[in-house]
Amino acid sequence: MYRTTTLVCALLCTQLSAQLTFTFDNNDLSHWNGDVHDFIVNENGQLQLNAQEAGQSSIYTKLIFPDSIVWQLDVSLDFSPSGSNKLTVWLGIDTTNISSANGYYLEIGESGGEDAIHFFQLVNGTPVLLASGIMGGVADPVNVMINLEKNSNDWWTLGTTDLDSNNSIQEFVLYFPDENISNQKYFGISCYYTRSRSEAFAFDNISISEIVADTIPPDLIAVEILDPRNVCISFSEKITESSAENINNYKFIPAIEIEHAVLDSADHRKVVLVLKSDLPGGQIIRLATKNIEDLFSNKSLELIYEIELIELAEPGDILINEILFDPFTGGEDFIELINHSEKNINLAGWILYNADKEESQDIMQEFILRPHEIVAFSKKPDYLYKEYQAPDDARIVFQDIPSLNNSDGNVSIIQIDKHTSSTIDSFDYSADYHHDLLNDTEGISLER
């Protein structure tokens, strides 16, 4: 049964523009009218119902409504909605006297087993059901972001995003001609509750804004190499299938033939390019895209993104090139590696290991070592630059390394891939390996 509600209006109401945003970062509820005394801003920065007894509490704000509009709000109901404990979101109504109002609203909570978000039109106080979301979608305690869009062509689209899992669902798409939305005056919320649920409604990030025409073409924001023959491209917005799957809209430099392009069925911002041959390793590859079209017919100009194939190392690909194990007083050891292969190799997750002392240090940072490049790891890079007058382009990187004996010992480098380890190089060093003409080897590194 529909329950008649009146939103009591003060004589003087502040009328907000078509852009309304409430994040409740402070205790200011001055823009709201109605049963404001039944609400608080809680310690989490949310608008929360804080009533003393069972009943119904409503608040609202005055607003200028544009013809095309998007409503967004976070809703947290710490209970399973029902006919006794439910929420009404007054999207836009022309009077606060609901018994004679015209407008639109969403409702969460009902008797029976549908447990969906329902979308109603209000005609002179009489509700008319226009659409319903996914059945069972609000059967459990609710913690969602609601997004309802009404464009200038009278298409209404309701989507929800679970704020715990971040999963998004399209609840419904409805064509419903409307000539009255710009005549509405109020946006509001009504909570219907039993005593045990009188503090169990919370809201945040309420936003109502005009939909501005999109004139910006999609941007190329990321490219991921899934494997040597599959490349995933991500754009800044949803794109059309025809432009996404036209292989003439993509070009690799150096040239690599494309077998076909597939628009991701779950995310229309992503395209997977399937190649006829493997991506070449050991070099920078440029991917150019053009004429990629968004849903508003905006076409992109040529966009270029640089990628490189990262490959696993095999024994001998990365070599221990030089070590310092007996530094000057106040100095620090270092381990220098060289990429002896034609591969781009990521050292993140690798282990620097002293087998004699069973000490290890993980390389935690992302570090790409390209073909024939050299890098030195030390806890005192600045000291090494100064003491050994290293050139500015020398790559000496801060990194903890295992302690090294001054007389002899071991340095090993271990690659970790999906919990599988492999020793790529190992060097048993000794001070005796220094040149015989050196009387004192302190502070002198040992090259292999």
Characterize the structure shown:
It is built from 2 helices and 34 strands. The chain has 448 residues and is mainly beta. The model is unreliable at 1-18 (pLDDT under 50).
Structural features:
eight-stranded mixed β-sheet; 2 helices; mainly beta; 448 residues; eight-stranded antiparallel β-sheet; disordered N terminus
Strand fraction equals: 35-45%
Backbone CA Rg: 32 Å
Distance between the termini: 87 Å
User: What class, by secondary structure content?
Assistant: mainly beta
Helix content: under 10%
Overall 3D form:
elongated
Tell how many strands the DSSP assignment holds.
34
Biggest beta-sheet profile: 8 strands, mixed
Mean pLDDT: 91
Q: How many distinct helices?
A: 2
Regions with pLDDT < 50 over 5+ consecutive residues?
1-18
